[in-house]
Specification:
The structure holds 2 protein chains of 2 kinds. Chain A is an alpha/beta fold. Chain A is built from 9 helices and 8 strands. Chain A has a single domain, classed as P-loop containing nucleotide triphosphate hydrolases (Rossmann fold, 3-Layer(aba) Sandwich), CATH 3.40.50. Chain A is 40% helix and 22% strand. In chain A, strands 4-3-5-2-6-7-8 form a 7-stranded parallel β-sheet, sandwiched between helices. In chain A, strand 7, helix 8 and strand 8 form a beta-alpha-beta unit. Chain A starts with a strand and ends with a helix. Chain B is α+β, with helices and mostly antiparallel strands. Chain B is 27% helix and 32% strand. Chain B is built from 2 helices and 6 strands. In chain B, strands 2-1-6 form a 3-stranded mixed β-sheet, with helices on one face. Chain B has a 3-stranded antiparallel β-sheet with strand order 4-3-5, with no helix packed on it. Classes of the chains: A alpha/beta, B alpha+beta. At the A-B interface, strand 1, helix 7 and helix 8 of A face helix 1 and strand 6 of B. Strand 1 of chain A pairs antiparallel with strand 6 of chain B.
Amino acid sequence: MSEVRIIDLKANVLEDNEVLAAKTRERLKNENTFLLNLMSAPGSGKTTTLTRLIETLKDEMKIAVMEADIDSDVDTKRILEAGAASVQLHTGGMCHLDADMTCQGLDSLPSKDYDLVVLENVGNLVCPAEFDTGSSKNAMILSVPEGDDKPLKYPLMFQVADAVIINKIDVMPYFDFDLEKAKKNIEMRHPGIPVFPICAKTGEGVKELADWLRSEIKNA
Amino acid sequence: MHEMSYVVRVVNLALKKCEEEDIKKVESLTVRIGQMVGVEPFYMEKYYKQAIAGTLLEGSSIRCELIPVKVRCDGCGNEYHPDAGNDYLCPQCGSGAAKLLQGREFVLEEIRASV
């Protein structure tokens, strides 16, 4: 009979990612670059929201966008047209970005040439919340057609976010979406978090969102 | 959904440890997973078999222990398990604000090696 030896490890499986994420935050601080990690479900309007933000902020700061897409450069073209630099991160089917992939993107820009870098994460409300990318702040977009109950179904996403953007408020009358209920559900998950109702298509509410981002960059 | 990403990390960590400890054959790994991580043991086990093919872990199994989510209420200090049954609110005072005590861990707990 063979003997069994038990090796007691208690090793944090995500430790390598967390160490690299902390290093990345330190590096960004030294470079005076602010990294915003933008997360949402597919089709919530990440790229349209970004093009609006770029239009609002491009005269005061240098902006670059890192697009995480499974395999397409459609979004990159729209970002370039809006007036920011862009790099495509091909995640090869991964459902999220980790600190390693983020670092590769920052190196290729390179990030020190920019004041604001936005990481457009993979469209998904589950996995991106799990992996620290090394970002300065996290924002998430909840769009009206997704429903006001999303904070209850995806609690971690709303906990790791530093701001919630509610997009497509122009179509609220056509959906069973209660803005006050959504705000209450968000508050339940993350007390005190700022919430920005916007319509990226018309630009409504984008000014307030840009003000928040500007002040976060200033205080980083 | 992101099980493969975790499996690869677990396997790499275990292989590194086996090299350090001069282990040649492994019976099983035990991982402890917080329920907030959103990982399904079924898929962990399925992907594990694929990930260990051709490594010294081949033939071993992975045991997943789930750790329930536990929080401490900001309002009254009560410790509870938030779930659909209590609407993710404190059963004592009704507040939703709370500090997470456990439930986000992903730990490679132990390696059982054959000697």
